[in-house]
Write a structure and sequence with these properties.
Number of strands: 5
Radius of gyration: 13 Å
CATH topology: Transcription Regulator spoIIAA
Strand order of the largest sheet: 1-2-3-4-5
Distance between the termini: 36 Å
Largest sheet: 5 strands, mixed
Length: 124
């Protein structure tokens, strides 16, 4: 199951959507963000992020959960003051998202089961 991701920016809401599929590790998450940074699409008014893991299988251990939170914190030039909503539907996705949220520092994250709820949280 090959790791894939795509992203799109909704200029009307200021939300960056990222859609993950396949087997996703910490390295894939880091790589996808670095590619997004290099593409220079995170300029302007970003209100928040919706990361959709519904089609993904997460392969992330406890130590890597901390690395995800550290990654966000070390890139506060992109994430400071933003909301990061994750669409998490499997038990593994919910656990990873919840554990990352417990380590939020300079940004706020939270798991959701629907995109609609995630968008509503990011915008309000």
């Amino acid at each position: 199951m090959e790791a894939k991701y795509r992203y799109e920016f909704d200029s009307s809401t200021g939300i960056m959507f990222k859609y993950y599929s396949g087997l996703i590790t910490y390295k894939e998450i880091e790589h996808s963000w670095m590619e997004t940074f290099r593409a220079n699409i995170l300029r302007g008014e970003i209100r928040g992020f919706v990361l959709d893991f519904q089609e993904a299988e997460l392969n992330i251990d406890k130590e890597e959960v901390s690395k995800i939170a550290q990654f966000y914190h070390s890139h506060l030039d992109y994430f400071k003051g933003t909301k990061i909503a994750t669409i998490s539907v499997t038990p593994e996705q919910v656990v990873v998202s919840t554990l990352v949220a417990k380590k939020d520092n300079g940004y706020t994250s939270r798991p959701f089961s629907t995109i609609e709820a995630a968008i509503d949280w990011v915008l309000n």
